[in-house]
Write a structure and sequence with these properties.
about 60% helix; mainly alpha; about 10% strand; single chain; 2 helices
Length: about 60
């Protein structure tokens, strides 16, 4: 399984390279949509993997 940090780094690099192309303007919008979908999946997976665990101090921590 790919580490979430690696995935975020890859998505950041894709955003940095993202630029409109005069020869293929649709490619920009397709790439933008793919990046947005990947970020939404990552956020959803993060929410599902986060757990709140009570500890003996009376405070909760997120894992």
């Amino acid at each position: 399984m790919i580490d979430q940090r690696e995935t975020l780094a890859e998505l950041a690099a894709r955003v940095q390279r993202l630029a409109p192309d005069r020869r293929d303007p649709e490619r920009y919008y397709c790439e933008k949509s793919e990046i947005a979908a990947a970020l939404r999946r990552l956020a959803r997976d993060f929410d599902q993997s986060s757990k709140i665990i009570p500890n003996n101090t009376g405070r909760n921590r997120t894992v």
